[in-house]
Amino acid sequence: MTEIDIEKENAEIAKAYKQLLKVSYRTLSTEDKKLIRKAFEVAVEAHSQQRRKSGEAYIFHPIAVAKIVAQQIGLDATSIAAALLHDVVEDNDNYSIKDIEELFGETVAKIVDGLTKISSLSKEKDMDVSLQAENFRKMLLTLNDDVRVIIIKIADRLHNMQTMDSMRPDKQEKIASETLYIYAPLAHRIGLYNIKTELEDLGLKYTEPETYNDILLKMKESKEEQDAYIKEFNDVIKKSLDREGLTYTIKGRPKSIFSIKRKMDKQGVSFDEVYDKFAVRIIYKSDRENEKFLAWKIYSIVTDHFRPNPTRLRDWISSPKSTGYEALHITVMGPKGRWVEVQVRSERMNEIAEKGYAAHYKYKNADDKEDSLDIWINRLQEALENSSLNAVDFVEQFKLNLYSKEIFVFTPKGELKSLPKGATPLDFAFSIHTEVGRKTRGAKVNGKLVPLSHELNSGDQVDIITSENAKPNPNWLDYATTARARGKIKSLLKEETKTIAEDGKEILRRKLKQLKIVLNEKSVNEMVNHFNLKTSLDLFYRVGTGNIDNTMLKEYAASRSNALVSFLKSKITRKQNINPEELNKEEITNKYDLLVFGKEEEKLDYKLANCCNPIPGDSVFGFITINDGIKVHKKNCPNAISLQSNYAYRIIQARWIDSSQQEFAAQIILSGIDNLGLVNDITKVISSNMHVNMNSISFQSDDGIFTGKINVIVRNKTMLKKLMDNLKKINGIDKVTRI
Question: Which family does the record assign (predicted)?
């Protein structure tokens, strides 16, 4: 770089720093500014020799992260300083955590240390469990040290996602999958809804670029029409709101690309068929005392003009979400017969919705009871420390609890408890206390006895019936949905199993002695194989419960003495069962090179995954399994995000190169208005499409509406698309989709 370029870059760095101070959500004191300035100077010096993949000076990254922390999340000067310093210790040998503590104090050092540990996790090598899932578990442990560690990490991830264009595609896909898998749900749970939305959209941009760009283009095309619609909606209610003397703003908010895509997938509809692509937000000025009263006043005004959907009222003012989110959500029938979601929030509620943790603490009173975020962190800490799940299962369970919608239920004394949607009385019991859960014998919901698998609804009053003699049983795992309940049940069952297994071992020793067999490692292994079990614990447990009885043990003793005879028999049987065709199978199997793997485009053996049933032409990737070789998945497979995030080191690039000679099964679902001769029209279209064979066809008609399933054999995606396009042209057919 020339001196002029360096000067120009330095001026840009100085400008970015000044902007950081200007955009801060908090009012910065002189001491705050000194702390931030000192952190900035240390970061500039530490990163002076570094550049990002894009070529720009590395210092722009910590400044950008600090800006997100200051403006979008609204954290304090300590957090802004920690964000500026978040990569200093990791990237520069001249600075240690001790140096940071001496320069900036214990709190900043603790946060920087947490961030440094998270960054260094990915460098650990441990192939027994998924690296990524284990890293997430360790990362979540830092939450208890200081929640700001995770919040700054989310800001760091957001800026990395915003500036990923210069990275290799495989690296982009890995980081994006990881973001969708854990960082977006975490942002959601901490109440950073705006950041969660941006992370999801950016994640989709790199994991499914075609889908992302297609929806983005359609949203741009319909923006003008949407703006006009929102204006028409607002004009109707503005006069009434003004008449009440309210100070308010009305904003139209388009739904995120990711949420539109999720809706399209869930409902099986096209972009044009997604009706609620935007929401209207009314933000009003109010003191704390009148907030609730004014929210319901605005609700009354909106519903005077537009008919509400009674099943879509969400009152998070009376019962805020456990993230601290408060608002009133109404869905009303707007102009032109369209459903519109209206969100009613005070300015305070809006700040909490946008800033999450930071705004929540700004408005928190000193005499408030323990905060819901604190409760959640304590629960999380307990789950992390007591979890008997492996890392991947733990993260899957944790993620379910992060994203699940909430219901509010009452205890017999009228206290309100928040649980994930789909929770059962068992989840409720374990949320109160482990001992209550352990002793659960039954449950009453609204005064009536219900099964433990009963799904709770908001407003239910739940009474747990306990007994000293009650014990958890394996069926409980089918009834419990929360990570806390499942984790506790598993550990309680393990304790029970161990106790029974210890008794079973002694019983087995006595019974084998009568059969003149010594209980040792050899005989235990023989019995494990004989009874088709997995471990010695399984064997002892089954003896303890009586599932393996005297008769079965005598059979084992007899088979032991006839081991040689059995061995010879099995050899003879194996020979007799050989199919002559099997010997020539390698010669018969076609050897067309359909898929190539990796950068070298190698030809390897593979299997097609049953979960997504890829066919040639689909965008795919290879996943190296432990026992089953390479499994090929579609890039938009339901399991893709989890696999790419958790097992990035087992993902292998894959590409179709020739599909002209192999045939693949695909299933088509049709729906529409039934009419005479429809089945005949459909079969004609299929038979007229060359290279397409129909395996099976089934139709169902219900009051003039038909649904049909067709299983076809095709050679590639192009042929399938052509067939589907032709089916759509048939009169009466409304929708044609591929499973």
Answer: Belongs to the relA/spoT family.
